[in-house]
Amino acid sequence: MSLNPDDYIPTIDAILSVSDLEKITVKKMRNALQELFDVDLTPHKKLEKEDQIMAAKLQLSLNSRALRKELKTSSANKKRKTPKREGSTNSGGLMKPMKLSPKLMEFLQKDNIPRTEVVKLTWDYIKEHNLQNPADRREILCDDKMEPIFGKKMTMFSMNKLLSNHIFPVEEE
């Protein structure tokens, strides 16, 4: 009996439609076709094996090309398009010095400092003087030195809101 793929295709489709595609293998498919058509397909096993090897080699070469391309583009992206500025200082954005209100200057004993430093110094003072409520650590019980700025008590979440009333941008001259 000659091997004509057109004869087997409807049967293969039928087998695949009723089979679990996660579990069906080439060997199971070949055995089913051998039983149904009473034909010996073992000589074609060698061709199937060669096809598998060729597919694996092709996949490997495609992956290595993609990897080389990826490495090439990532190294190209690493090159800096504009040179880094020499002597740049972090004096912008959050690190920009701000003018403090007289009450806040008296509390921190500092003049023009960045907002981040104001918050850091305030937290240092709170922890040094143990001003957090032991029952609710989110709450801060202000002492006499902090009261003109924050009131009798505040939460840690409202600290920045209260500080914003005492921090102003420095006027450029």
Automatic annotation (TrEMBL):
Residues 2-57 form the DEK-C domain. It comes from Pachysolen tannophilus NRRL Y-2460. Its main location: nucleus. It is found in: Nucleus. This is Uncharacterized protein. SMART domains: SWIB. It comes from the Eukaryota. Residues 69-96 are annotated as: Disordered. GO terms for cellular component: RNA polymerase I upstream activating factor complex. The keyword Magnesium does not apply. One of its GO terms (molecular function) is RNA polymerase I general transcription initiation factor activity. Residues 93-169 form the DM2 domain. InterPro entries: DEK_C (IPR014876), SWIB_domain (IPR019835), SWIB_MDM2_dom_sf (IPR036885), SWIB_MDM2_domain (IPR003121). Keywords: Nucleus, Transcription, Transcription regulation.
